[in-house]
């Protein structure tokens, strides 16, 4: 546009002419500027509410390129199979659960709903020579070789886990599709407990949360498997042996905050209500904690969470925060899991810190116990939230929205918060309904925003949308 004016246009103009011309310039500049802004808003809306967000690229990584290796045992299978069956997609997910010995007759016929099983290789020829400190450790690492041997055709990624690992496969596909599978990658994340990382390593992927290897890395690791197990036979941990051998290949950990070892005990709801802003990929150790939903057992809880996961994994546990100005309440939604009302305006950065409802796996002598900041459980009415848990998910009649409902877990049992005005408490609210676009949300550079569209005596309605370009959430 500037090129339509001669270069010396502004030189030698009288004042009046300048005014006139600058009006013209403003006009010329502003119109296209507004147009661009409008079309940007339009584009964002369009992208989040119509199908082809991901171009149909035939070379894109999909579920068929990922091989899962799950380490189990005949002893733990009967009470843990439900964790794998909750996410396994028969005839779509590929891989095996590795058992320490052949299944006993009562476990047969093997269920179609579970990953097919394999019995781990007998590597006693190797163990005789290396005399490992714990025989189980090399056997577990050897599982990578056993999976690779069978599943290397059209395979791009290996994902190793345990028989109590819960995987969110749509998100795993979307995350891995962003990486070049022809390069060397080792993805995982550390333990939530500081002391576990100190004992083992801050630089290793913890196996129950999941160890993710790209094809070339898996191939190199498998090629030198015997050498690796011999070199590190004295190690006390299979995950540590894996990391050590990968380091010998020249590859280091790429941390991903969606992978969860869950080295925690007790009530996990504080963490699940403030998940880091990345796609959720895995959970481990549900067996070692309280059930994640009140009045459900662990298996029911797992299946319940999968109802939300099957509707929209891209939003699952993503925390969305908005404020109700008329009452000075903060709403925090962890999509598909929980909703909270605070009777005070609190900054997003504060609400993103998990409330410490849980305990560390093992406690060091003094804090810090966790690899993240926490907020204390509080009895202060201006600090303690009203807690609601995921109840159901429906598609709207038009098909454009998903409606998730969250019901009150328990009465809060505290007076109203009076410091930010003397208003009524949220005690009467028994249900929160959340309306979110029925389309996967791929962009994660920014959170979603929301509006409180209605609050009455019993119910609150919240609508998700993309944040406006310069919107401040405060
Ligand atoms: C996955 O990608 C392969 C190409 O590598 C293609 O043949 C296959 O149909 C795709 N599968 C799905 C389920 O999209
Ligand atoms: C998986 O495929 C096999 C045959 O290929 C079929 O017999 C079986 O019913 C399928 N299982 C499911 C759960 O679709
Ligand atoms: C593994 O192989 C050794 C011989 O190499 C044999 O003595 C042992 O019984 C085998 N173990 C199992 C569980 O089959
Ligand atoms: C909300 O809080 C502000 C300051 O914290 C206060 O001035 C205002 O009166 C409050 N509004 C209500 C409705 O309580
Ligand atoms: C709040 O309102 C009640 C009456 O509804 C009154 O008794 C109380 O003193 C008020 N508290 C504050 C801090 O204004």
Automatic annotation (TrEMBL):
InterPro entries cross-referenced by the UniProt entry: DUF604
GO terms, molecular function: glycoprotein-N-acetylgalactosamine 3-beta-galactosyltransferase activity
EC number: 2.4.1.122
Superkingdom of origin: Eukaryota
Protein keywords: Glycosyltransferase, Membrane, Transferase, Transmembrane, Transmembrane helix
Enzyme class: transferase
Membrane-spanning parts: 20-44
Gene3D superfamilies for the chain: 3.90.550.50
Full protein name: Galactosyltransferase
Organism per entry: Handroanthus impetiginosus
């Amino acid at each position: 546009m500037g090129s339509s004016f001669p270069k010396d246009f502004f030189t030698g103009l009288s004042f009046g002419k300048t005014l006139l011309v600058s009006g013209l310039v403003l006009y010329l500049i502003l119109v296209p500027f507004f147009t661009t802004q409008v079309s940007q808003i339009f584009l964002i809306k369009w992208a989040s509410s119509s199908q082809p967000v991901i171009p149909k690229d035939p070379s894109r990584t999909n579920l068929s390129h990922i091989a899962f290796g799950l380490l189990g045992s005949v002893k733990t299978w009967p009470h843990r199979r439900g964790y794998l069956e909750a996410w396994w997609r028969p005839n779509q997910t590929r891989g095996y659960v590795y058992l320490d010995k052949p299944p006993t007759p009562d476990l047969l016929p093997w269920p179609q709903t579970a990953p097919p099983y394999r019995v781990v290789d007998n590597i006693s020829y190797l163990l005789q020579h290396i005399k490992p400190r714990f025989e189980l450790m090399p056997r577990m690492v050897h599982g990578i070789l056993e999976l690779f041997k069978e599943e290397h055709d059209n395979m791009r990624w290996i994902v190793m886990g345990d028989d109590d690992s819960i995987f969110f496969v749509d998100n795993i596909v979307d995350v891995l599709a962003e990486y070049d599978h022809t390069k060397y990658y080792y993805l995982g994340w550390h333990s939530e407990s500081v002391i576990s990382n100190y004992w083992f390593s801050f630089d290793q992927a913890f196996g129950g949360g999941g160890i993710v290897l790209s094809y070339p890395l898996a191939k190199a690791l498998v090629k030198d498997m015997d050498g690796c197990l011999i070199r590190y036979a004295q190690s006390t941990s299979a995950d540590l042996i894996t990391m050590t051998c990968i380091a010998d290949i020249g590859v280091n950990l790429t941390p991903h905050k969606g992978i969860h070892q869950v080295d925690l005990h007790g009530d996990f709801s504080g963490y699940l209500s403030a998940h880091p802003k990345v796609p959720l990929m895995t959970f481990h150790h549900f067996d070692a904690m309280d059930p994640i939903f009140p009045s459900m057992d662990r298996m029911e809880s797992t299946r319940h969470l999968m109802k939300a996961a099957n509707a929209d994994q891209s939003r699952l546990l993503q925390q969305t925060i908005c404020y109700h100005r008329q009452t000075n309440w903060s709403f925090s939604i962890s999509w598909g899991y929980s909703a909270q009302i605070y009777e005070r305006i609190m900054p997003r950065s504060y609400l993103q810190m998990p409330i410490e409802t849980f305990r560390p796996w093992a406690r060091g002598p003094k804090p810090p116990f966790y690899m993240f900041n926490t907020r204390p459980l509080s009895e202060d009415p201006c600090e303690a939230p009203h807690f609601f848990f995921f109840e159901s998910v429906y598609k709207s009649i038009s098909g454009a929205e998903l409606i998730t409902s969250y019901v009150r877990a328990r009465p809060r049992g505290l007076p109203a918060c009076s410091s930010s005005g003397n208003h009524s408490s949220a005690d009467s609210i028994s249900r929160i309904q959340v309306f979110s676009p029925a389309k996967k949300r791929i962009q994660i550079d920014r959170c979603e925003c929301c509006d409180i569209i209605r609050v009455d005596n019993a119910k609150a309605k919240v609508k998700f949308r993309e944040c406006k370009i310069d919107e401040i959430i405060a």
